[in-house]
Write a structure and sequence with these properties.
Elements: E1 8-9, H1 10-18, H2 20-27, H3 36-49, E2 61-70, E3 75-84, E4 90-96, H4 105-121, E5 127-132, E6 137-142, H5 145-164, H6 185-188, H7 190-193, H8 198-206
Parallel strand pairs: 1-3, 4-5
Antiparallel strand pairs: 2-3, 3-4, 5-6
Helix pairs in contact: 1-2, 1-4, 1-5, 4-5
Protein name: CRISPR-associated exonuclease Cas4
Keywords: Antiviral defense, Exonuclease, Hydrolase, Iron, Iron-sulfur, Manganese, Metal-binding, Nuclease
Cofactor: [4Fe-4S] cluster; iron-sulfur cluster; Mg(2+); Mn(2+)
């Protein structure tokens, strides 16, 4: 496997796709704070990890909390669940506590898991699923060329961001609505740090850049 310092956790790809600043705060500065969403997510993952290897579908072998990695991409992590089906298909399943989300970060993480499994097993993995605990439904995800490219791009961008050591700015525009449910909002303080935020306005009241210095 790649040098440990260069190995990107699969969870970092999920965080980055949701918000680069959140990803940096967690994986570069070690910041984390729970809210109701992260606690529910943790409990759901713990529940899944405690499952056994049996399946209701005949002939399907299930592996939970399966470690995966890719030497080519330099990523590692674990799959919530992987179904090994009688026809030879390998089908990764990511468990999420809520209902279906409008963001693509979960799909990106699942695709990265599949790409790891492909490298480890030598088999093509064209699809997987997100299981949404709140609705008790699976949503199938197709690992097409666009999604695979998005994974590779995210890996490169996360690695570059962590290497630079510069925390990205908060999300702006319509994407700023993601901040509402973020557990790191109190640490990130997007209203103060963001362009046009309160901190910038305060600075303008304290110092006039046009004022001549004697």
């Amino acid at each position: 496997m790649s040098d440990l310092a260069e190995v990107i956790p699969l969870s970092a790809l999920n965080q980055y796709a949701y918000c680069p600043r959140r990803c940096y705060l967690i994986h570069a500065e070690g910041e984390f704070q729970d809210n109701i969403h992260t606690v529910r997510g943790t409990l759901e993952h713990e529940r899944v990890d405690q499952q056994n290897g049996e399946s209701k579908a005949a002939g399907v072998r299930l592996e939970y909390a399966l470690p995966v990695w890719s030497d080519v991409l330099g990523i590692s992590g674990r799959c919530d669940a992987v179904e090994f089906r009688p026809d030879g298909e390998i089908f990764p399943v990511e468990h999420k506590h809520g209902k279906r989300k409008q963001w693509s970060n979960d799909d990106l993480q699942l695709a990265a898991q599949a790409m790891c499994l492909e490298e480890m097993t030598g088999k093509d993995i064209p699809r997987g699923a997100i299981f949404h605990q709140q609705s008790r439904r699976r949503r199938e995800v197709i690992f097409d060329d666009a999604l695979r490219l998005a994974v590779k791009t995210a890996v490169e961008e996360v690695r570059a961001m962590l290497s630079r050591g510069v925390c990205p700015s908060p999300l702006g525009g319509s994407e700023a609505r993601r901040c509402g449910e973020c557990s790191l909002r109190g640490i990130c303080e997007p209203e103060l740090v963001g362009s046009g935020g309160e901190l910038e306005q305060i600075a303008l009241t304290l110092f006039d850049p046009k004022e001549e210095v004697l």
